[in-house]
Amino acid sequence: MTATAVSGLIDAISYLGLGHVFTANMTGNVVIIGFAAAGVPGFSVLGSLVSLAAFLVGAVAAGRLETVMRHRPSSHWLRLTLVLEMVLLATATAVAFAASHAVHAVHALIALTALAMGLRNGTVRKLAVPDVTTTVLTLTLTGLASDSTLAGGTNPRSGRRLLSVLAMLTGAFGGALLVQHTGLGWPLLASTVGAAAAALAVPRSSSSS
Question: What is the residue extent of each domain of the chain?
């Protein structure tokens, strides 16, 4: 759930501090590109395209990483991914503290955070853990409703699903407060610490995926 909270942090940082661009939630970026193409002010086609491209590069890297790590325990693979995410977010933190208001720095921050999220999302998809969607909660919320007792279901994994929603909400709330009151460096530092905590929380051994 720490990784999900980090996603909330990242989208708060990118949307509120990097020109209304998402770097974790790519559905939002596609919609934003549509808004910008229609001439709606306040949205950047370039920023969203940079985010999409970097995210896809990260997802490709996750796929390549699977070919290298497939014969090792899945915990090793997940931990490595989270460490790489931490490194990318730490680099973004350094850029933010050094020159967050420069135009080139904004695009660098978009690229670094989207790359980290693409890498993580590609890995989570490959591992295919039920209801662990660390970036987008649409399917999680759909599952909560459609599998509920109101819908005639048995509420499978409802606890995990609710925790995912709360983790994203908490990350977005904390990220919004930090961006508003401290700028981009401190929330990015918090996301780096969160990625490190998630890496440390991965069990030392598990069966191969």
Answer: 2-201
